[in-house]
Write a structure and sequence with these properties.
139 residues, alpha+beta, single chain, two-stranded antiparallel sheet, 4 strands
Length: 139
């Protein structure tokens, strides 16, 4: 989830009538487009130019200002859609479901990410297989 994936905003695209050189100049000179994403914007602009229309924004991307509840709700919706269209097998169930009736989301200790300790005394790090369970308030 972090860092959120790049969402290309077509509002920053140059007009589709521009040539590739002019489009590249405008994209490179646009301060609203992050420097590492400029080539991705140019490639997306080229795709839009080939299709002859600007891409539409889906509105279902994770953003930095979203709360964990909003992110979990988004993930629940994507899982519901994946079950409906058959890309996810309903037999295995969903990891995130039923958020509307919950006050907290609990991640059990056996499902938490593993990590290593960073000892201050310079000794060898220790693998931490399971951390304490994590409770995320959904208020």
């Amino acid at each position: 989830i972090f860092p959120p994936p790049l969402v290309i905003d077509s509002a920053h695209f140059p007009p589709l009538t521009d040539g590739q050189g002019d489009a590249m100049k405008k994209i490179m000179g646009n301060p609203a487009i992050p420097q590492p994403a400029k080539m991705q914007y140019l490639n997306a602009w080229k795709t839009a130019k080939d299709k002859g229309q600007m891409p539409s924004a889906s509105g279902d991307a994770v953003k930095l200002d979203m709360s964990l509840k909003q992110i979990l709700t988004l993930m629940e919706g994507k899982a519901d859609a994946a079950i409906k269209d058959g890309t996810m097998n309903p037999k295995w169930g969903q990891a995130i479901s039923g958020l509307a009736g919950r006050k907290v989301w609990v991640i059990p200790s056996d499902q938490t990410p593993s990590c290593n300790t960073i000892p201050a005394d310079g000794s060898d790090p220790v693998d931490v297989r399971y951390m304490a369970s994590i409770e995320i308030p959904l208020v």
